[in-house]
Design brief:
Two copies of one chain form a homodimer.
Chain A: H1 10-17, H2 24-33, E1 36-40, E2 45-47, E3 55-61, E4 64-69, E5 75-81, E6 100-103, E7 107-113, H3 114-123, H4 125-151, H5 154-171, E8 179-181, H6 186-193, H7 197-209, E9 213-216, E10 219-222, H8 225-232
Antiparallel strand pairs in A: 1-7, 2-6, 3-7, 4-5, 4-6, 8-10, 9-10
The first copy, chain A, binds a DNA duplex (30 and 30 nucleotides) through helix 7.
DNA sequence: GAGGCGACTTAACCCAGGTTAGGCGAGCGT
DNA sequence: ACGCTCGCCTAACCTGGGTTAAGTCGCCTC
């Protein structure tokens, strides 16, 4: 493993530990499964559509997105990734499914050999359970995006996305005073929300005007999460987190 | 198991056998895991949001949908289910995630106790692999719906949905002469596609006018799958099927 | 420090699809 | 045979968000 000391994989551990109960020993063992820690610059691809899935790839630092391109050139971003997120779950079924992952900012990425992970799961079944839970949460997030795209208007969509990101960042201990780092451009947001970048701009301005949101230089600030959540029709429990009564994991 | 003779669970077996290679013995064993076969009338709920997931619920006959309701009353259909489909994958992670499943027509449903299934997977690991594959396909379908909602216009969306359904029905041997049964109303289609029922109507008429599609009394006919697919920006391989070189499974 | 590029902003115009409000026919219960 | 409900269809009108086009600002490179 390279430079484990420079970049902490803590968000990853926090992510999984927030889904299943894990003992100290298990967390340590899990940590040692990480075999490589790479960096990518903004806009670089982290995973290609057709890449074999012999590694579990985990985002450790920075922002990234999953997306797919249509034959007509349009792009749909299907997920934003925050530190601790697993980039792609195809290793669970050893299939290859068509979507790529790209960095939105400079990122650090950890890679875990699937074989080693599966082997370790024999001794620690909690590892596989954690992955399946993470995958289920991922599904829930996708489902909620579908609802955004189908039923929410522009203002609600943007508000919803920000609430979702805030919750996910908070879970891994990366929200401070209502602020967190998130590197998508307005065009990226448009490709994720099914809006033009022009309209994303109009919408963000409206949210700023209402003193709900601040956004600049890759830092998002939510001034009033409650009002924003109401506006967004945001229901945290629908994301599959904390339904088990388990909130953000305390980092000791 | 009740009245196994009246309703064939063949679509279910075809579905899984189309994802992983299974021997005759395994298919037989799988069949014997089915412990109950129930019927529901149209509009009845098959699964509630909060239901415990101690059964794997499989649609055997008829049409159904997964959906979630927003606090403002609007409804987003997140998936249509065709015979052979697993209604809900939450049993994989033993979490409860908020969506319901409802019948669109009279349906038959099989139930497999999760415990028995997991136990059987010890002897036949292919069972669990099949479930994970089915879940991955389910993800791919959801992803493609997100792309529809975000990037395709009304005509493309409707066309896409019909192509997808045709493919899925064909996989389980339920397409004859380009026709298959599908019971959603135009309002249902609207709730799935993020369109008003009025506009779904306009759009279907346009597809009929172009001699691409026929639809009446719960029977869909595609007159020209190729043209329709082109119009829809439909890329079958993106659904995760047949990427492994495996097309619709021959039923011997 | 000139030039270029990428992200954000603004404004004018326009259209795809929503909304509202009906009408029509088939099935069904009484 | 009546009336009800439900699904389908039509038409008139309206608006949320798309499109195009241009301008600003900061940052990076040479």
């Amino acid at each position: 493993m390279t430079d484990r000391n420079l970049v902490s994989i803590r968000p990853f551990l926090a992510n999984l530990a927030g889904l299943v109960r894990m003992r100290e020993e298990e967390l340590t063992h899990l940590m040692h499964l990480v075999k490589a820690l790479n960096r990518h610059t903004a806009h670089q691809h982290i995973l290609e559509e057709e890449a074999p899935s012999d590694r579990i790839v985990v985002l450790i630092q920075g922002s990234a997105c999953r997306f797919r391109r249509l034959p007509n050139g349009r792009r749909q971003i299907t997920a934003f990734l925050v530190p601790g997120d697993i980039c792609d779950y195809r290793f669970l079924s050893s299939g290859t499914v068509g979507q790529s992952v790209a960095a939105l900012s400079p990122v650090a990425v950890a890679r875990i050999p699937v074989e080693a992970f599966v082997a370790a799961s024999e001794t620690y079944p909690v590892f596989m359970r954690a992955m399946l839970s993470a995958s289920a949460v991922n599904d829930a997030i996708m489902r909620e995006w579908m609802i955004s795209l189908g039923q929410r208007n522009a203002l609600e969509r943007v508000a919803y996305l920000l609430c979702e990101l805030e919750l996910r960042m908070r879970r891994v201990g990366l929200v401070e005073d209502g602020s967190f780092s998130f590197a998508a451009t307005q065009a990226d947001l448009g490709d994720a929300l099914g809006l033009s970048s022009v309209h994303v701009n109009r919408t963000l301005q409206e949210l700023r005007r209402r003193h709900l949101v601040g956004m600049s230089k890759g830092v998002v600030t939510l001034y009033d999460v409650d009002s924003l959540g109401r506006l967004a029709l945001f229901e945290p429990h629908s994301l599959g987190y904390d339904r088990a009564g388990r909130a953000a994991v305390p980092m000791h």
